[in-house]
Design goal:
Blueprint (H helix, E strand, L loop, with lengths): L22 H24 L9 H10 L8 H11 L9 H10 L2 H25 L1
Helix pairs in contact: 1-4
Pfam families: EF-hand_8
Organism: Arabidopsis arenosa
Protein name: EF-hand domain-containing protein
Amino acid sequence: MASPKSSTRPNQENQEPKFQDFFPTMAGKLGGEGLIEELCKGFELLMDKDKGVITFESLRRNASTVLGLGDLTDDDVRCMINEGDCDRDGALNQMEFCVLMFRLSPELMEASRCVVTEVIEEEFSDYSHRH
């Protein structure tokens, strides 16, 4: 169980857990395809081998052994699953896991937003010139 002053849990002195976002660095070094490949490897480490998805049980078990997050409560694990469970089946498939990892990286989300904005503006400009 996590203590109230655990670094993984917010408290009155530390409202948000602090973490360093390594995804932008990984994306820069590995490129898009390399990053997705690494995310898929991470998914495989956390998934239930029989079901092919990350379940509450597989995340609970592997959060401790693979991620070194032994002080997670059942509520913490449930919240982690719920955060990425788009289809509400109670588990994370590979796509949900990868999308969640991108969503949890503020820098990658901002970079993605900029790319999407540029594409939309370019498409709008091309459309306006054609009509």
